[in-house]
């Protein structure tokens, strides 16, 4: 691990303390940082997007790889001087954006396709992931650290408690894989929960946005009333759920969590 005394010196020098509203927990284990960077494999000619770089620990590791460019988006101004210093000490193409990642239009700050690598703030992790899932025309790969509970929802199998809208969206659009879990003691301050690093690779051919939006509408209707049978929950999007579901071979007495990703896909075509 990094020496906590060194971390404290850095925080003190820049008058920084973790901000709860930004979901800040600083990753302090160099081995975990290296493991995330190595998960990228060959990065030659790749543009990397990092969200919430904070103290720049992962940023420095990414800059040590053979990449085309690195763009970092940081909402908290107190980290900007540290990131500016990192920028001044690298010969790589380094773009620093002080903005809210939820509001940024990625295609406007990055030229060409990009790979997302990030230790995401807990409070906006799932919101950012849903945003990116709708932008897969531009994304080559996503490797992110999330709260383990959110990662479990992404990877959840049908008919489990964790299975829901996020599971269906992610698995419909991408090949999803857990890389490893990260214990709370690898952060400062230590969170009360575990984290997981996951990898998402867009399926080929990439799914059209119109299909994704239909899947999302179907998921919203079904999972908003997840304890109801789909003959009831899908009434907002189907004029005659029982008849229409029978035609495509889906049991209308199923509940949302019993529908496979393929079945949600079928439903999206009859909406």
UniProtKB/TrEMBL annotation:
Subcellular location, principal: cytoplasm
SMART domains: rADc
EC nos: 2.1.1.182
Catalytic activity: adenosine(1518)/adenosine(1519) in 16S rRNA + 4 S-adenosyl-L-methionine = N(6)-dimethyladenosine(1518)/N(6)-dimethyladenosine(1519) in 16S rRNA + 4 S-adenosyl-L-homocysteine + 4 H(+)
Gene Ontology molecular-function annotations: methyltransferase activity
Keyword match Methyltransferase: yes
UniProt superkingdom: Bacteria
PROSITE patterns assigned to the protein according to its UniProt record, in alphabetical order: RRNA_A_DIMETH, SAM_RNA_A_N6_MT
Binding site for S-adenosyl-L-methionine: 25, 27, 52, 74, 100, 119
Keyword match Transferase: yes
Record CDD domains: AdoMet_MTases
SUPFAM superfamilies associated with the record: S-adenosyl-L-methionine-dependent methyltransferases
Localization per Swiss-Prot or TrEMBL: Cytoplasm
InterPro entries reported in the protein's UniProt record: KsgA/Erm, rRNA_Ade_diMease-like_C, rRNA_Ade_Mease_Trfase_CS, rRNA_Ade_methylase_Trfase_N, rRNA_adenine_dimethylase, SAM-dependent_MTases_sf
Ribosomal RNA adenine methylase transferase N-terminal domain sequence ranges: 32-204
GO biological process: methylation
Biological function: Specifically dimethylates two adjacent adenosines (A1518 and A1519) in the loop of a conserved hairpin near the 3'-end of 16S rRNA in the 30S particle. May play a critical role in biogenesis of 30S subunits.
Name of the protein described by the UniProt record: Ribosomal RNA small subunit methyltransferase A
């Amino acid at each position: 691990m990094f020496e906590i005394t060194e971390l404290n010196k850095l925080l003190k020098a820049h008058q920084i303390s973790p901000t709860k509203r930004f979901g800040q927990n600083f990753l302090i284990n160099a081995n975990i940082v290296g493991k995330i960077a190595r998960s990228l494999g060959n990065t030659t000619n790749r543009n990397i997007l990092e969200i919430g770089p904070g103290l720049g620990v992962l940023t420095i590791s990414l800059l040590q790889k053979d990449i085309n460019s690195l763009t970092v988006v940081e909402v908290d101004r107190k980290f900007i001087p540290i990131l500016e210093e990192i920028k001044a000490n690298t010969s790589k193409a380094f773009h620093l954006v002080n903005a809210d990642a939820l509001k940024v239009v990625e295609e406007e700050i990055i030229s060409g396709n990009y790979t997302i690598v990030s230790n995401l703030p807990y409070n906006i992790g799932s919101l950012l992931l849903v945003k990116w899932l709708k932008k897969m025309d531009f994304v080559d790969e996503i490797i992110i650290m999330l709260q383990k509970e959110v990662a479990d929802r992404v990877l959840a199998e049908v008919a489990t408690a964790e299975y829901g809208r996020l599971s269906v969206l992610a698995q419909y659009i991408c090949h999803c894989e857990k890389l490893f879990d990260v214990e709370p003691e690898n952060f400062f301050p230590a969170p009360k929960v575990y984290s997981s690093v996951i990898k998402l690779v867009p399926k080929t051919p990439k799914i059209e946005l119109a299909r994704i939006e239909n899947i999302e509408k179907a998921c919203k209707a079904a999972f908003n009333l997840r304890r109801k049978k789909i003959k009831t929950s899908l009434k907002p999007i189907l004029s005659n759920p029982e008849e229409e579901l029978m035609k495509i071979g889906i049991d209308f007495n199923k509940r949302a969590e019993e529908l496979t990703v393929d079945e949600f896909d079928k439903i999206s075509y009859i909406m």
